[in-house]
């Protein structure tokens, strides 16, 4: 699973898991492991939203209670953190889910 988190082939840990930002490669370039059996469809997006909403909620609480930021500064800073965090987390969570599916031999891996 940790290989998937690093965008690497869950079988050998060396080949690339993604051919672009979120597009899964058809197979590993190094060991030939096929990734066509993966079923990481909507799960990574749901887990990313779950994590980022918790972070945004804590940020909102602390910015309202402990800072002097106005509503516009609060909204802009939280939006920036959520967008950047989502773009950073989404491929990692997708790789983690593919690695988990491979480790448990789900969906024909």
TrEMBL record:
Record bears the keyword Transmembrane: yes
InterPro entries, per database record: DUF983
Pfam families registered for this protein in UniProt: DUF983
Membrane found in the keyword field: yes
Segments crossing the lipid bilayer: 45-66, 72-90
Entry keyword set: Membrane, Plasmid, Transmembrane, Transmembrane helix
Protein's name in the database: DUF983 domain-containing protein
Natural source organism: Tabrizicola piscis
